């Protein structure tokens, strides 16, 4: 049987899937690891951890029952947003850990850009703004704070580009990964921006010269590696791209207007479009499918499912005890929370537990419950957390609508949040859209496998995808939607009102920590 393999390098684990010509998953395996956080706000990873996980996932999948390694026609790699990229020397040996998407150390560089660069021009060229999330600010940090590493750096490679080099011996960067760096990529011309590189004082020669579509073949699988895995030598290694766009493709987003919300530890909502309206606070890059024409514009909340986990872990010990050995605190919280009216009897929650990304873009934003009284119990707070994260989703969707592309009339949701019927109903009511989910597990690794299938002729992505079963989970209630419209308006007023206090508290906390240390 002919198959292809998709690999996704995630923040906390790598996963590989083997699929057939229908897109059905025949084998899968994941390998976990940790993020290094040597200082507050720092988040970095050594790429050898990723490479070892890739090899383990491939080896395990290829040993699965019914999988013929000689029938594998190609493979493709999706990866987390690698921020700065991996600094490698002329021999492509890593010189420093990769400063990944959640790293926030480049705040001084952000301030420098705001003071010295024409922001309107930067947004017009790149379709993106400035924040320590973006890779170009992290590159600036490396140049300023690690000059010895910068001097020895030959390339700055996104995670999938580095893994593709280990697989094929070829250096290339896909357009989605290049665009997501922000700041230095010309979104209209689909190439590096010499103008912005000069303005930011970054070195053009440290960027890969070969830019390719996500579905393009970078090179052939190295013979020695193929032999060790039992695969055929020189099968196509397909470029791949950023995991959020890959997961959106896996959920069936192939045309302008298609949009998907991924809600796991964090939240990411993205829409396919063909033009960008700068200044809306969203992130834009070429899509992983038809990247010469289509864009993937997305926004995200740093703590979505993480807000729910934090609440349960911190405040719901009694519910854990009541649930017993085979239950969960969620089983205790969901039924009473479901009986509450929209708004959880007068509560609002700001889900900014680690600052916030779009459209707020504030590393000093903080979370809070507003409206608490002695009447409220844990299930009130639980529902308020679900609603607060959903308001953050709508906040990004409203910014997306201002891009001018008509959204599909329904919303597809993937990720761990889909396990909650209550949350799916809240999302339908808050967004005023029917909510659909997949019966199967739809993730970025599947999106990578679909691109590998297209590149090898095994799958035609121009045809309706048949790799999963969409099911309708919730229809919006007009009465609930009207109430949520009012609450969302209040939610949008909370951040600008509380921002000065959030920042003052952050400064005081930083000073106290410095005094203590």
Layout of secondary structure:
Elements: E1 3-9, E2 13-19, E3 25-32, E4 44-45, H1 47-62, E5 72-79, E6 86-88, E7 98-99, H2 107-116, H3 119-126, H4 135-145, H5 147-152, E8 155-157, H6 159-168, E9 173-174, H7 175-180, E10 185-186, E11 191-192, H8 194-200, E12 211-212, E13 217-220, H9 223-229, E14 236-242, H10 243-250, E15 259-263, E16 267-273, E17 283-286, E18 295-301, H11 305-315, H12 317-323, H13 329-338, E19 348-350, E20 368-370, H14 378-401, E21 411-414, H15 421-431, E22 435-438, H16 444-455, E23 470-474, H17 478-516
Parallel strand pairs: 1-5, 5-14, 9-12, 15-21, 21-22
Antiparallel strand pairs: 1-2, 2-3, 4-7, 6-8, 10-11, 13-14, 15-16, 16-18, 17-18, 19-20, 22-23
Helix pairs in contact: 1-6, 2-4, 10-16, 11-14, 12-13, 13-14, 14-15, 15-17
Write up this protein.
About 40% of the residues lie in helices and about 20% in strands. A 7-stranded mixed sheet has the order 17-18-16-15-21-22-23, sandwiched between helices. It folds into 2 domains: about 5-250, ATPase, nucleotide binding domain (Nucleotidyltransferase, domain 5, 2-Layer Sandwich); about 305-395 and about 475-515, Nucleotidyltransferase, domain 5 (2-Layer Sandwich). By secondary structure, the chain is of the alpha+beta class. Helix 2 (about 105-115) crosses helix 4 (about 135-145). The chain is globular and about 65 Å long. GO terms for molecular function: kinase activity.
């Amino acid at each position: 049987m002919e198959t292809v393999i998709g690999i996704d390098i995630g923040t906390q684990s790598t996963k590989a899937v083997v699929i057939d010509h229908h897109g059905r998953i025949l084998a899968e395996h994941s390998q976990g690891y940790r993020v290094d956080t040597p200082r507050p706000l720092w988040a970095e990873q050594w790429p050898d951890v990723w490479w070892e996980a890739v090899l383990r996932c491939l080896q395990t999948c290829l040993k699965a029952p019914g999988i013929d390694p000689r029938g594998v026609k190609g493979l493709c790699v999706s990866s987390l947003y690698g921020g700065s990229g991996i600094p490698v020397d002329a021999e492509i040996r890593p010189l420093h850990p990769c400063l990944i998407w959640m790293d926030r150390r480049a705040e001084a560089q952000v301030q420098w850009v705001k003071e010295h660069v024409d922001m309107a021009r930067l947004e017009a060229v790149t379709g993106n703004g400035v924040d320590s999330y973006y890779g170009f600010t992290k590159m600036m940090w490396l140049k300023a704070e690690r000059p010895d590493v910068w001097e020895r750096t030959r390339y700055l490679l996104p995670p999938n580009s580095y893994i593709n080099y280990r697989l094929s011996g070829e250096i290339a960067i896909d357009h989605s990964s290049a665009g997501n760096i922000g700041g230095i990529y010309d979104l209209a011309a689909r190439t590096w921006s010499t103008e912005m590189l000069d303005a930011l004082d970054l070195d053009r020669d440290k960027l890969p010269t070969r830019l390719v579509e996500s579905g393009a073949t970078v090179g052939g699988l190295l013979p020695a590696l193929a032999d060790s895995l039992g695969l055929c030598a020189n099968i196509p290694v397909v470029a791949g791209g950023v995991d959020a766009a890959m997961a959106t493709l896996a959920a069936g987003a192939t045309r302008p207007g298609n949009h998907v919300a991924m809600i796991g530890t964090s939240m990411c909502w993205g829409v396919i479009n063909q033009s960008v309206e700068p200044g809306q606070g969203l992130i834009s890059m070429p899509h992983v499918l038809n990247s010469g024409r289509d864009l993937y514009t997305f926004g995200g909340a740093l703590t979505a499912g993480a807000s729910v986990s934090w609440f349960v872990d911190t405040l719901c010990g009694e519910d854990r005890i009541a649930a017993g050995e085979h239950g969960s605190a969620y089983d205790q919280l969901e039924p009473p929370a479901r009986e509450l009216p929209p708004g959880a009897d007068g509560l609002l929650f700001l889900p900014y537990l680690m600052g916030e990304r779009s459209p707020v873009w504030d590393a000093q934003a903080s979370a809070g419950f507003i409206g608490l009284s002695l009447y409220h119990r844990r299930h009130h707070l639980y529902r308020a957390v679900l609603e607060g994260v959903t308001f953050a989703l709508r906040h990004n969707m409203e910014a997306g609508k201002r891009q001018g592309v008509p959204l599909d009339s329904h919303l597809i949701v993937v990720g761990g949040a889909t396990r909650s019927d209550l949350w799916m109903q809240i999302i339908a009511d808050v967004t005023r859209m029917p909510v659909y989910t997949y019966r199967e597990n739809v993730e970025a690794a599947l999106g990578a496998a679909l691109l590998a299938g297209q590149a090898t002729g095994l799958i035609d992505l121009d045809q309706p995808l048949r790799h999963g079963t969409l099911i309708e989970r919730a229809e919006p209630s007009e009465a609930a939607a009207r109430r949520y419209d009012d609450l969302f308006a209040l939610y949008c007023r909370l951040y600008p009102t509380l921002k000065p206090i959030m920042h003052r508290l952050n400064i005081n906390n930083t000073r106290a920590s410095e005094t203590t240390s």
